[in-house]
Write a structure and sequence with these properties.
Elements: H1 8-15, H2 32-35, H3 52-67, H4 71-83, H5 88-97, H6 100-107, H7 113-121, E1 125-127, E2 130-131, E3 144-147, H8 155-164, E4 173-176, E5 181-184, H9 199-206
Antiparallel strand pairs: 1-2, 1-3, 3-5, 4-5
Helix pairs in contact: 3-9, 4-5, 5-9, 6-7
């Protein structure tokens, strides 16, 4: 499974916005964006005005980094979204939101999407009673996501259950933190997706 293995705080600084890639650290004073809000590198403080193409490219990069997918997989999601009915940009975000690692994060059962991806890969989660260890698995309305019985007593999941009790998942998900279980109520609408992405710019980029 291909994945980015470099310093993730560098990605947030490059996009100039918090992408919440490191869980609790992003909410603390140690957040790199809060401490150094300029881009990384020797010329990071000398930002030039971006061209139309540059704005579109940065928006695509931001979306990829926010959801933790690489170029080939992201393009595949776009191709699927383009073939679906409705607006391509919204379809794209809806597909990305339906990824199992994202849903686990949204339910509060991981502090970041990276941790959610790791926990899924290690086989700690079940969908409708069956173990699923594929982070890109797309959930559907009615699916129940739960921590495997043998994993529930692990100290990390006890910590996550306590933290999840104080989090509010989006309206298209229903969480039961004490049971380490959640349900997909419906497909997310654009208003229910809080991703800091202007999806129309991504559509314009791929339509060039």
């Amino acid at each position: 499974m291909a994945r980015y293995t470099g310093p993730v705080c560098r990605l947030c600084r490059r996009e100039g916005i918090k992408l919440f890639l490191k869980g609790d650290r992003c909410y603390s004073d140690k957040c790199s964006v809060a401490r150094r809000s300029y881009a990384p590198g020797e010329h990071g403080q000398n930002r030039k005005k971006l061209s139309e193409y540059g704005l579109q490219l940065r928006e695509k990069q931001k979306a990829k980094r926010y959801y933790g997918v690489l170029e080939r997989q992201f393009r595949r999601y776009f191709d699927i979204a383009e073939r679906q009915k409705g607006m391509t940009g919204e379809n794209l975000l809806r597909l990305l939101e339906r990824r199992l690692d994202n849903v686990v994060y949204r339910l509060g059962f991981a502090s970041s999407r990276a941790e959610a991806r790791m926990l899924v890969r290690h086989g700690h989660f079940m969908v409708n009673g069956r173990k699923v260890d594929i982070p890109s698995y797309l959930v559907r309305p009615g699916d129940e996501i739960a921590v495997k019985e043998k994993s529930r007593n692990l100290p990390r999941f006890q910590e996550l259950a306590e933290a999840a009790a104080h989090r509010n998942p989006p309206a298209w998900l229903q969480a039961e933190p004490s049971a380490l279980r959640g349900t997909v109520i419906s497909l997310p609408t654009r208003e229910q997706i809080d991703a800091p992405v202007q999806e129309h710019l991504i559509v314009e980029l791929y339509s060039r």
